[in-house]
Amino acid sequence: MALSPAKTAKPWYQQLYFWVLTAIAAGILTGWLWPSAGIALEPVGTTFVNAIKMLITPIVFLTIVAGIGGVDSLRRVGRVGLKSLAYFQAGTLVALLVGLIAVNVFQPGAGVHAHPGSLQLSGSAAQYVQSGENQSWWHFLTDIVPTSAIGAFADGNVLQVIFIAVLFGIALKAVGPAGRPVVEGVNRLTAIVFTILRYLMLAAPVGAFGAMAYTIGKYGVATLTSLGHLIALFYGTSLFFVVVVLGGITALVRVNIFRLLRYLREEFLIVLGTSSSESVLPRLMAKLEGLGIRREIVGLTVPTGYSFNLDGSSIYLSLAAVYIAQATDTPLTIGGQIGLLAVMLLTSKGSGGVTGAGFIALAATLSTVGTVPAAGIMLIFGIDKFMSECRALTNLAGNSVACLVVARWERVLDAAHVNRVLRTRAPAQPPSDGTGTTPALERAG
Predict the structure, then answer these.
(1) Helices first, then strands: H and E counts in the chain
(2) Cβ neighbours around 170 below 10 Å, total
(3) Angle between helices 158-174 and 74-106 (to 10 degrees)
């Protein structure tokens, strides 16, 4: 299928990214100058995020089912899944190592000298630690199977919805011609859901304004300076990981990382404003399809990556764990750090989308190892909200690159088409995948 002509670009002041960026700036000023007003705006941000989350499980289910139903062989589905998991584990290991190296080189916790006995857990931090202590290292394996098919959708558990969708898609393919009308119905239903998404995204600037105003009003700009070294190190390490590590990976598949980031600029700004990478999951999947990546690869890699490929969360885990050890003067040898890394390879999985997921994973790691006091998370509890934006941004970049890598691994990535779209910086119609479906970017707008 020939590429359709690119849509006429809107003026910069009509672009979604401009209005989201303006809303973020307005939110920061509102929270700084009128903290009480900023705190009162919390429902504005949470309502927008909830509205987007409402569509995540249906879109994940429909996309995976349509992708599996449209492939010519179930063997390809299994191959894509295994390659995705292999890449996720390698990416997590590299992210953890980058975090460990950075925190050992710069040692932001040296000189803090916080006595473990003086740290008292309270409020939400105590709840997160309790959740972490009750969380087994293998929990993500057992939690993948829901007790109720409807419950997985009602709870918004993406990992469980993926499990149901894969089973449904395989069964749909197994029944042969009898399943074709269902696949067509799924494609039509997907178009409707993406149209709803397009309507909801019109409210993105309002949601970003409310969320940012609440964050600054609640925690204050002063919170940023109290542990400025750790915040700066985390942001700097994450930037290094995206530009150097992920940039090197995209160079291997002949894609420019900076053009990819620019292509996804609206998604990054929405994540920055809402502190939630889930708020752009449907749009991310649509834009990756717009690069010409096959639907079954996008449908399997991206949603699964939101639970298993959390590069930003991995960097945060290694940085925070060793920072707490440094700040509490807890001896931590190279062997002890390797032990931490081995545990974090497991505790970092399957927690995407859970409130306080970073703290829960950190508490689970410290509780499992036992060498670093779990109460030490109180040292960083006040700045966690400001670090969550960076975690979400890095996770988004990592999953975008993962999809490109798996497509290249499958030898179905048209690098020339991808670069053509990235150069024009406009969504383009991807090549036909033989499913007869409407391109996702046409649906997402």
Answers:
(1) 23, 0
(2) 15
(3) 160
Separation in Å, CA 430 to CA 10, 18, 97, 115, 436: 21, 26, 36, 58, 12
A 10 A CB-CB count for 371 gives: 15
Predicted TM-score (pTM) of this structure: 0.77
Q: Give the side-chain half-sphere CA count within 13 A for 23.
A: 28
Interatomic CA distance for residues 229 and 373, integer angstroms? 21
Beta carbons of 377 and 362 less than 8 angstroms apart: yes
CA dist., res. 263 & res. 266, Å (int): 8
Pick from 39, 23, 19: nearest CA to 31: 39
Query: Alpha carbon of 327 to those of 103, 115, 268, 339, 391: distances in Å?
Result: 12, 8, 32, 19, 22
pLDDT digits (tens, 9 = 90+) for 355-385: 456 666 777 777 767 677 777 777 777 677 7
Q: What would the two tokens of residue 148 be?
A: 């109720």
- Each residue's pLDDT tens digit, 72-108: 677 888 888 889 989 999 999 999 999 999 999 998 8
Report the C-alpha gap between 273 and 216 in whole angstroms.
Answer: 11
Length of the chain counted residue by residue: 445
Measured CA to CA, the distance from residue 295 to residue 288 in angstroms comes to 9
**CA distances (Å), origin 166, targets 63, 68, 72, 223:** 10, 8, 15, 44
Q: Among the residues of 1-119, which ranges form H helices?
A: 16-33, 35-40, 42-70, 74-106
Per residue in 184-203, is it b (16+ CB within 10 Å) or e — as a string?
Answer: eebbeebeebbeebeebbee
CA 240 to CA 340: how far, in whole Å? 22
**What domains are defined for the chain?**
12-432+439-444 (1.10.3860.10)
